[in-house]
């Protein structure tokens, strides 16, 4: 079997809180209602909750999926650009393609069939479960089980998921896990944040129609993750 390696990363946004039905709003806010000691404290907690809706596939969606062939250093970023008349373009060995969330997920799982190793940063606790649930919500069956077991020896040979945050924190043994930015800084790798955007700003950027900026940020994430994987493979993989 060949040893094809795919780097991937997603960007997400939360849905508008006011668009939810009353039962959903109550489910989301019942804990902050109990824990807030004043109206001011509740208002602050509610704003924090609204900003965090993009962390759940039940209250958010995927606006960008980036994939990079580790060996070829070529990839594609699929991204949402609703109501924007954008055509696909190429930049820095990445092709950028606007499409819907459903189309992005179909394209990802179709391409995943060609690969055996999948590399992410924090993919086990965020990217992969988010993608799998959003796929099911969109009526799409994932082509690979990238959540099978936590440890590498438990994975299927054609679906080995190497989560670099797991590996570099030794499955949580280190006291502070660190972010992708912190790891790239420590290893002398250009950070994806160097372009003036980070994950916390994806929602506001999307709302402002800055779809290209989100897509290119996703592309920078891919190369940073690939370079970090190279460091792990060379010095820490056993």
TrEMBL record:
Keyword Hydrolase: yes
Domain Predicted 3'-5' exonuclease PolB-like: 97-233
Designated name of the protein: 3'-5' exonuclease
Keywords linked to the UniProt accession: Exonuclease, Hydrolase, Nuclease
Molecular-function annotations in GO: exonuclease activity; nucleic acid binding
Natural source organism: Candidatus Harrisonbacteria bacterium CG10_big_fil_rev_8_21_14_0_10_49_15
The keyword Ubl conjugation appears for this protein: no
